[in-house]
Specification:
- The chain has 273 residues and is an alpha/beta fold.
- The chain has one domain: 3-Layer(aba) Sandwich (Rossmann fold), CATH 3.40.50.
- A 9-stranded mixed beta sheet has the order 1-2-3-5-4-6-7-8-9, sandwiched between helices.
Length: 273
């Protein structure tokens, strides 16, 4: 009986040790910067720390594809200027309510770690769904949004119900993530970014979109153009940079200075207020 108890105790301690280790910070290198890796709400997460933090410990949160086109989206320059670069991996959930709950937990962890209570969101491609859906529910936590060829209406992509060819596999996955029972239910859902701009306008959150005017994956006319008109009509501030003859890729700009300046200007304005 004593041996059985000892075995069970050792097994329990082993499991507990593994759980504790999973929650510990693990440090790695990211382009010469210190990246702190940890787990939040069961999801892998990380913070890339600047060598010297700017006032108020500002952060930029790339909601999806945080490793893509980093030389073109301005994130490396922002790190050099004292911004933290942060991300949580929730999987391919298309900005669904479940993903937003993980984002809430991650945000609380950022604040617990003494980062600013407000920051910048980056919505790259389908990351637009993540950025705008979370911002619409948390406008008090967002300084500004940089959308890069962002999906702003899932009927366009992955739905493919307009000019985009869409993605049937991703459309099926999205319906499952959101819990839609029928396609008609998904098509009538009133919570896409194009439908949820009012809270952002009321909070005076500036928007910047960088798009290719030849993008047939996430067509501008079905996404950014609608956001641009509706946000302007609501009195919101939005700037759109159109890249002539460019498709969905590459994201960002050859010289990302305009992106960097936009984020720094609005961050400094927030701190001054």
């Amino acid at each position: 009986m004593r041996n059985k108890f000892s075995i069970l105790l050792i097994a329990f301690l082993t499991i507990l040790s593994g759980m504790l280790w999973a929650d510990e910070d693990r440090v790695s290198d990211w382009y010469g910067y210190r990246r702190v890796n940890f787990t939040v709400d069961g999801c892998p997460a990380w913070i890339v720390e600047p060598k010297q933090s700017a006032p108020n410990n500002p952060w930029v949160w790339c909601m999806e594809f945080p490793e893509a086109f980093t030389e073109r989206t301005g994130v490396r320059e922002l790190l050099a200027k004292g911004f933290n670069y942060v991300h949580i991996e929730v999987g391919n959930q298309f900005g669904s309510p479940e993903s937003l709950r993980h984002f809430d937990a991650f945000y609380r962890e950022l604040v617990r770690r003494k980062l600013s209570v407000k920051g910048t969101l980056i919505g790259l491609s389908r990351g637009g769904l993540y950025a705008y859906n979370w911002a619409a529910k948390n406008p008090d936590k967002v300084i500004c949004i940089y959308g890069d060829a962002p999906v702003c209406d899932f009927k366009s992509w992955p739905g493919g119900k307009g000019r985009s060819s869409g993605s049937s596999a991703d459309w099926a996955a999205l319906m499952k993530c959101y819990g839609f029972k029928t396609e008609n239910e998904a098509l009538k859902w009133p919570g896409n970014p194009i439908d949820s701009l009012k809270p952002l306008a009321e909070a005076k959150i500036p928007l910047l979109h960088v798009v290719g005017d030849a993008d047939m994956t996430v067509p501008v006319v079905e996404n950014t153009l609608i956001v641009e008109k509706r946000y302007s009509d609501l009195g919101g501030e939005i700037t759109v940079i159109y890249k002539s003859g460019v498709g969905h890729h590459p994201h960002g700009l050859d010289d990302p200075k305009l992106i960097v300046d936009f984020i720094i200007k609005n961050t400094n304005k927030e701190i001054a207020e």
